[in-house]
């Protein structure tokens, strides 16, 4: 039929399963927040998945011009009132709710899930499975109980991380209780407030997330007392890292704000080329299973830089968490989660 839109059923199933993992139940009121420039197909898919679960769904579309002019559309009385009367807010804007001054008030009444997917086609690479939350919880426990982490690689990375004063955050991208706020796809653990020393050797295929840059040559980074003291190399990749660090004019520009790793088992990841920018799409990048992450400059994504190491190893107090990019022990997905990603 002319003008018909064909929707992949797996996309609807992916969204529906994620809503179920967030505890969505019949008769809940859900507001989908988007701008007039966001993907309309994704908005429709989100509404359909929620309606399948028996929810009362409202769509709230704000004008993109208000965001471009620096105004906070979420803090508008009409918008805020609609969100405050929701049990769940699905934010398709890339995080307007999280950046709004009204967030704390909204979280007193609702839970908020920021969907970092920008188009419906990106849903094809995302795996939703209950096993992720269990693995994320275990990874967070390892960091909370650990005293020292060591990060190493065959390329020459050798870092020691003091976890004595670390603040640990772990998210599987699920919001089940009032006040919960999360980004989806999820599956990350982070330790901030750390002391870190040593050498990082980033290799071809490693990534600078916020600048969407995939390295094509080795870059050596020296860290002392939690600070980047030197970036070695006369390559475009070394220059890109230096430029990204120097662009941050805050006092913490050269500080290592946090370290962590991804646990999300993305679909079709094995088929991605080493320099394929799809590796930075939702569910990949810092979330991808076995990727070791260093946050440079600041913990907040809009103020810092994330360096992803694809083939590093992590040991917490002599217990292997990751070996050469592969999750170990109870952090590794079981056969059922592996089957879901096939």
At a glance:
The chain is about 25% helix and about 30% strand. It has nine helices and 20 strands. Strand 16 and strand 17 form a beta hairpin.
Would you give an account of this structure?
The protein has 342 residues and is of the alpha+beta class. It has two domains: 9-125, Rossmann fold; 131-171 and 185-340, no CATH class. The chain contains nine helices and 20 strands. It has helices at residues 9-21, 40-52, 64-68, 77-84, 96-99, 103-107, 131-145, 236-247, 335-340, and strands spanning 29-35, 56-62, 88-91, 111-115, 148-152, 158-162, 167-171, 181-184, 188-192, 195-202, 207-208, 213-214, 219-224, 227-232, 256-262, 292-296, 305-309, 313-316, 319-323, 326-327. The protein has an eight-stranded antiparallel β-sheet, covered by helices on one side. A seven-stranded antiparallel β-sheet has the order 7-9-15-16-17-11-12, with helices on one face. A five-stranded parallel β-sheet has the order 2-1-3-4-8, sandwiched between helices. Helix 1 (9-21) packs across helix 2. The longest helix has 15 residues, at 131-145. Mean pLDDT is 91; it is low at 1-5.
Key attributes of the depicted protein:
342 residues, alpha+beta, Rossmann fold, 2 domains, eight-stranded antiparallel beta sheet, seven-stranded antiparallel beta sheet, 9 helices, disordered N terminus
Topology (elements, then pairings):
Layout: H1 9-21, E1 29-35, H2 40-52, E2 56-62, H3 64-68, H4 77-84, E3 88-91, H5 96-99, H6 103-107, E4 111-115, H7 131-145, E5 148-152, E6 158-162, E7 167-171, E8 181-184, E9 188-192, E10 195-202, E11 207-208, E12 213-214, E13 219-224, E14 227-232, H8 236-247, E15 256-262, E16 292-296, E17 305-309, E18 313-316, E19 319-323, E20 326-327, H9 335-340
Parallel strand pairs: 1-2, 1-3, 3-4, 4-8
Antiparallel strand pairs: 5-6, 5-18, 6-10, 7-9, 9-15, 10-13, 11-12, 11-17, 13-14, 15-16, 16-17, 18-19, 19-20
């Amino acid at each position: 039929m002319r003008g018909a839109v064909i929707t992949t059923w797996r996309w609807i199933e992916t969204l529906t399963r994620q809503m179920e993992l967030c505890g969505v139940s019949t008769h809940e009121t859900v507001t989908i927040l988007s701008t007039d420039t966001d993907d309309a197909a994704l908005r429709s898919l989100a509404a359909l998945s929620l309606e399948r679960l028996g929810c009362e769904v409202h769509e709230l579309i704000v004008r993109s011009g208000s965001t471009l002019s620096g105004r906070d559309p979420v803090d508008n009385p009409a918008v805020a009132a609609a969100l405050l009367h929701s049990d769940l807010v699905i934010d398709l804007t890339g995080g307007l709710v999280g950046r709004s001054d009204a967030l704390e008030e909204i979280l007193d009444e609702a839970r908020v899930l920021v969907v970092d997917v920008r188009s419906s086609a990106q849903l094809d690479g995302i795996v939703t499975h209950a096993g992720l939350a269990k693995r994320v919880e275990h990874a967070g426990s390892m960091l909370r109980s650990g005293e020292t982490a060591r990060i190493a690689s065959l390329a020459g990375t050798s870092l020691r991380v003091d976890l004595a004063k670390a603040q640990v955050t772990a998210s599987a991208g699920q919001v089940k209780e009032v006040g919960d706020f999360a980004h989806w796809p999820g599956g990350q653990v982070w330790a901030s407030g750390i002391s870190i020393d040593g050498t990082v050797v980033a290799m071809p295929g490693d990534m600078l997330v916020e600048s969407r840059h995939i390295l094509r040559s080795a870059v050596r980074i020296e860290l002392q007392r939690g600070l980047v003291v030197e970036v070695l190399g006369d390559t475009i990749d070394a220059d890109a890292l230096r430029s990204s660090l120097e662009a941050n004019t805050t006092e913490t520009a050269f500080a290592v704000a946090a370290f962590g790793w991804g646990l999300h088992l993305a679909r079709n990841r094995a088929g991605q080329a080493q320099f394929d920018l799809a590796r930075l799409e939702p569910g990949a990048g810092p979330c991808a299973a076995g990727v070791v992450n260093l946050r440079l400059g600041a913990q907040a994504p809009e103020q810092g830089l994330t360096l992803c190491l694809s083939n590093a190893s992590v040991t917490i107090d002599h217990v292997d968490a990751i070996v050469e990019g592969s999750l170990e022990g109870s952090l590794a997905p079981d056969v059922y989660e592996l089957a879901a990603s096939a």
